[in-house]
Specification:
- The protein has two domains: 2-124 and 187-209, no CATH class; 126-178, no CATH class.
- The chain is built from four helices and twelve strands.
- The chain has helices spanning 81-87, 98-106, 112-117, 127-138; strands at residues 2-5, 27-29, 35-44, 58-59, 72-77, 88-97, 120-124, 142-145, 152-156, 159-161, 190-195, 203-209.
- It has a five-stranded mixed beta sheet with strand order 2-7-1-11-12, with no helix packed on it.
- This is LEAF RUST 10 DISEASE-RESISTANCE LOCUS RECEPTOR-LIKE PROTEIN KINASE-like 2.1.
- It comes from Camellia lanceoleosa.
Length: 210
């Protein structure tokens, strides 16, 4: 499953600098395609001597993004994160697909925002729960969960059901979620995550798939 951050979907310059964290109890990075972590630095003085940063990794932000000025912004991979820590006022960590990063370096038309917007792969430990929610939404219901059994529940106009609402429901793909059984292997649905400011920087799932 591919996921991406909602606050970086339309801009690479978020209002608040929050690194990407996952709940490892339910998610893990996918083993293939390979995922790598990038560190985006904001309002930087530039890399120190002896640590050149590729010009392709630079990006621009308007004054006011994150309360910063429009100084240099750039990204590095996690092995050079110390460059960001020493020379930038703000930073966030963002996972990306290795293959998309390779394409970025080989194609000058791909922007940093487009690189991040491609998201990254995760394995969802409760995929059956997600599939049940897809069926629920496609039948016209609202998906919730039983806090005792941790099982998906479909809330319908006439009460709650285990998986789907009675009746024909909308056509597959018309509801808030598309039924994943109708997606070809070449299509990559992207689940968008929206960061929530909490002590553990948790995430909630927004109700849309691209």
């Amino acid at each position: 499953m591919t996921i991406a951050r909602a606050d970086l979907w339309d801009t690479i310059c978020p209002e608040k600098f929050i690194s990407t964290t996952l709940n490892w109890n339910i998610l893990d990075y996918s083993s293939y395609p390979y995922v790598v972590n990038l560190t985006l630095g904001y309002d930087c003085f530039g890399p120190p001597p002896g640590h050149p940063v590729e010009e392709r990794s630079h990006f621009q932000c308007q004054v006011g993004a994150g309360g910063q000025s429009s100084n240099i912004n750039f990204f590095v991979n996690e092995s050079y994160e110390s460059i960001i820590q020493q020379n930038c006022k703000g930073r966030i960590k963002v996972p990306v697909f290795q293959e998309v990063l390779d394409a970025f370096w080989g194609n000058n038309t791909i922007t940093v925002q487009e690189l991040v917007k491609q998201g990254f792969g995760v394995e969802y430990h409760y995929m059956d729960y997600f599939r049940n929610c897809v069926l629920c939404y496609d039948s016209g219901g609202e998906c919730g969960s039983d806090i005792t059994t941790n099982q998906a529940i479909c809330f319908c106009h006439d009460g709650h059901q285990p998986q789907t609402c009675p009746g024909p429901g909308p056509e597959p793909g018309v509801g808030k979620y598309r039924n994943l059984s109708h997606i070809s292997n070449t299509e990559k649905p992207i689940l968008v995550l929206e960061p929530i400011l909490t002590r553990k920087d948790k995430y909630r799932i927004k109700h849309k798939i691209y």
